[in-house]
Amino acid sequence: MGLVNAISDTNDKAAAASQEFLKKSQAYYKLKIFQQLTLTVSMLLKLLIMGGLVFVGMVLGAIGLALYIGNVLENPSLGFVCVGIAFLILAIVVYCFKKMITNTITKKLSETFFD
Predict the structure, then answer these.
(1) pTM for this one?
(2) 82, 68 in Cβ contact below 8 A?
(3) How far apart are alpha carbons 103 and 83 in whole angstroms?
(4) What is the structure's pLDDT at 10?
(5) Are 95 and 104 in contact (CB under 8 A)?
(6) pLDDT tens-place string over residues 47-93
(7) Cα–Cα distance for residue pair 108/115, rounded to 1 Å
(8) 29: pLDDT confidence band, cut at 50, 70 and 90?
(9) The domain containing residue 8 runs over which residues?
(10) Domain count of the fold of the chain
(11) End-to-end Cα spacing for the chain
(12) How many helices, marked H, and strands, marked E, lie in the chain?
C-alpha cells in the first residue's frame, strides 16, 4: 500500500503543479497581450499625430513653393504644375522602393512585438 500512496501523492503534486503552471501561463499571456495592445495603440496614435502634422506641413509648403515658383516664372499655374510634377516624381521613387520600405517596417515591428 505504501507504493500506491506514494504514486497517489506524486499524482496530486503533479496535478497541483500543472494547475499552478496553467494559472501563471494565463496571467503571463494576459500581460503580454496587454503590452502588445498598448504598444500598438500608442504606435498608431503617434503615427496619426505625426502623419497629420507632416501632411499639413507638406500641403502648406507645397502651396508656398508653388506660389514662389509661379512668381519666379511669372505664371502661377506653372508653379503649381512644377510642384505637381515634383510630387509625381517622388511618388514614382517611393513606388520603386516599396519592397525595401515594407521590409524595413516589418523588421522594425517584428523587433518590437517579438522581443
Answers:
(1) 0.66
(2) no
(3) 29
(4) 82
(5) no
(6) 999 999 999 999 999 999 999 999 999 999 999 999 999 999 999 99
(7) 11
(8) very high
(9) 2-113
(10) 1
(11) 51
(12) 3, 0
